Amino acid sequence: MPIDKPAWVKDKKIADDFEIIRAKPYDDYKDHRNDNGCYTLIRIYWDTHEIGVAVCDYKHTILKEFRGTRAQDIYVAMFKFDEENNKKWFTVPDHIAYIGKELKKAELCMALGTEYVQE
């Protein structure tokens, strides 16, 4: 049975095999996958009004810290450094999305002057 074009799609065509895929609830513990290359620690530096992201190895050594005032500036710098230096820190798409989400959350907390707690 053909699926009608979603109402929000105005002038676009849809693929012959178009389908709507409903997302299942994500379990923070059961569904979590570690990135093989690193983990990150995110914090706000209130004195400089910056967000810092520490990239750590699994021996709990901080390898690099990236700082900036906007989430996008920081994640672009991190992923560019990773790619240009062939570090392979970030290989799991879930982890990459998580970093973007947490950076935006930190940015919002900084703008609102509220405490940031990393998930």
Structure description:
The protein has a domain at 39-112. Helix content is 29%, strand content 18%. It contains two helices and three strands. The longest helix is centred in the C-terminal third of the chain and has 20 residues, at 93-112. The termini are far apart. The model has no long low-confidence stretch (mean pLDDT 92).
Strand order of the largest sheet: 1-2-3
Summarize the helix and strand pattern as letters.
Answer: EEEHH
Gyration radius, in Å: 18 Å
Low-confidence stretches: none
SS-derived structural category: alpha+beta
Q: Major β-sheet, in short? A: 3 strands, antiparallel
The tally of helices reads 2
Instruction: Kindly state the percentage of residues in helix.
Output: 25-40%
Give the end-to-end Cα distance, rounded to a whole number of Å: 42 Å
